[in-house]
Amino acid sequence: MKKSVCITNAMIALSIMGSMASAHAKSNPKVETDKAAHVSESKNAALNFIGKTWKTTQITDAQSGVDLTSAKENQMYIGLANYQIDGKYAILDLEGKPKSSGIWALTPDGKKRILYAIDPQTGAALFTRVVDVVKLSPNVFTYRIKNSAGVDVLVKHEPYKTLSK
Predict the structure, then answer these.
(1) Three-class SS of residue 71?
(2) Residue span of the signal peptide, if any (predicted)?
(3) CA 24, CA 143: separation in Å to the nearest integer?
(4) Which superfamily does CATH assign the domain made up of 2-162 to?
(5) What are phi and psi of 110, to 5 degrees?
(6) Tens digit of pLDDT for each residue in 139-153?
(7) 48-84 b/e with 16+ CB inside 10 Å = b?
């Protein structure tokens, strides 16, 4: 019962975010003009996620480009991530142990990735993380996040393996 409530809450939150983006588009003629292109971009971007396991390959300071992959405040971003077509995701450490799972989405414009983590035992919400998508192609996924030291970092992923459909 709790899992369905959390999933429903996540879908409501994502729906609200979509409505907010739509309201912004209506108040901005340029955005309204480009709305169809953004929807298409978002669908294409989402297709880049699906069917792959993404491995963290590098973490750099967003300003200086210095490699911070081994810094302790960035270790939580290192792992393997899988985004499924049904909106579920799973993140594992590099040894294959679960780190988090729940629901994922891209904003309608494809510029933000949202994770809504759910406790697999209780169905309780654990956290929501929204990050800026810097690059998303079939071969690279990079997002920007502020780490626990307050540094903006770029977290780069590359496909680890392609999953069978």
Answers:
(1) coil
(2) 1-25
(3) 23
(4) Domain of unknown function DUF4822 (2.40.128.540)
(5) 75, 10
(6) 999 999 999 999 999
(7) bbeebbbbbbebbebeeeeebbebeebeebbbbbbbe
What residue has token string 């929501």? 128
pTM: 0.73
Burial class (CB in 10 A: 0-12, 13-18, 19+), 133: middle
Give the type of residue at 92: L
Angle of CA points 97, 101, 103, to nearest 5°: 160
DSSP letters for 88-145: EEEEE-TTS-EEEEEEEEE-TTS-EEEEEEE-TTT--EEEEEEEEEEEE-SS-EEEEE
Question: Which residue matches tokens 């983006």?
Answer: 21
Q: Which of 98, 102, 96 is nearest to 119 (CA)?
A: 102
The position carrying tokens 């108040």 is 27
